[in-house]
Amino acid sequence: MQENIFSLSLDTLGTMLENAGFQKFRAKQIYHWLYVRYVDDFDTMDNLPKPLKTYLKENFTTQKVQICKKEQSIDGSVKYLFATQDNLTYESVFLKMKEDKFTLCLSSQVGCKVGCSFCLTAKGGFVRNLNAGEIVYQVWAIKKDQGIPQNKAINIVYMGMGEPLDNLDNVVSAIEILSTLDGLSISTRRQTISTSGIAPKIKKLGALNLGVQLAISLHAVDDKLRSELMPINKAYNIQAVIDEVAQFPIDSRKRVMFEYLVIDGLNDDLDSAKKLVALLNKIKAKVNLIYFNPHEGSKYKRPSIEKVEAFREFLLKKGLLCTIRESKGLDISAACGQLRERNLKE
């Protein structure tokens, strides 16, 4: 069975080539073709000797995943649906930010185990982890599709389908591949892992000291509401998560991001804002307020602009750095899991 070449680190590929009787430096040439020039046809890699091309075609493939659908918003954001060889689908989002900056939201699993009540991905349950190549391919395919040069800096956020810390080994491998200087060269400082708060794995990630940024999906300031929104809170409550975040190694110029999904009538009041300030008092934190993105069948509603802006102003006055995430893709299947869910129904 052919191996997905996007799953291989530069060192691993070099060792495999060396063991097969080829020079190790050929791995850098292959990485250059794949990740700098976006060429995925081994026959087109014209500085490789013919025997090596034959070896590559016999042992590796670049076709384990394909883009099967995409939706483009009037604001420039694009939702991609990828299909695997075992007939599963997962999503990514390309976000065009201000000043010609780009962010890619990547999936780490097909489905999700966490079961957040506001998330459409949870509806389909958990299917399987994505391997490193299936994670990396999202970046490669989107950059190629969007015509983004290899040397153009982009930001990566592991906050699509799935819980990244539930698939830590493959996510760590993907981070290594994506940050390789001879490849896509996306600095670990530009890669953010967003987690629902699996406290022991936050500790494990911190011990690896990869240089990545950390984002916590908080969404509530008391355990009762958070447990309703995120059942994982029953295993790892707010204080357990905060305790691990306080120990997490973070770049002195950076802050830990706390994602706060604002839901109408549930967590959008100033009393919640006051509790949030107290909760994050001893952490170098930044709060990202997110408007709930409505989707079919959800019991939750989008909050008013006035409520969200008042929430932000309260945090800022108390010295807590806070931004409101600009809503993207409201005219397409922008909610996490929405494009996959619609595709399954067709």
Summary of the model, kept short:
The protein has 346 residues and is α/β, with parallel strands linked by helices.
Key attributes of the depicted protein:
346 residues; alpha/beta; ten-stranded mixed sheet; 11 helices; elongated
Describe what you observe in this structure.
- With 346 residues, this protein is an alpha/beta fold.
- 34% of the residues lie in helices and 20% in strands.
- The protein is built from 11 helices and 14 strands.
- The chain has helices at residues 10-19, 26-36, 50-59, 132-146, 168-179, 199-208, 223-229, 238-247, 270-279, 305-317, 338-345; strands at 3-4, 60-61, 65-72, 78-84, 89-96, 102-105, 109-111, 126-129, 155-158, 191-195, 213-217, 256-262, 285-291, 321-324.
- The strands form 3 sheets. It has a 10-stranded mixed β-sheet with strand order 3-4-5-6-9-10-11-12-13-14, with helices on one face. A two-stranded parallel ribbon has the order 1-2.
- Helix 4 packs across helix 5 and helix 6 runs parallel beside helix 8.
- The chain starts with a strand and ends with a helix.
- The mean pLDDT is 93.
Tell me the layout of helices and strands.
Elements: E1 3-4, H1 10-19, H2 26-36, H3 50-59, E2 60-61, E3 65-72, E4 78-84, E5 89-96, E6 102-105, E7 109-111, E8 126-129, H4 132-146, E9 155-158, H5 168-179, E10 191-195, H6 199-208, E11 213-217, H7 223-229, H8 238-247, E12 256-262, H9 270-279, E13 285-291, H10 305-317, E14 321-324, H11 338-345
Parallel strand pairs: 1-2, 6-9, 9-10, 10-11, 11-12, 12-13, 13-14
Antiparallel strand pairs: 3-4, 4-5, 5-6, 7-8
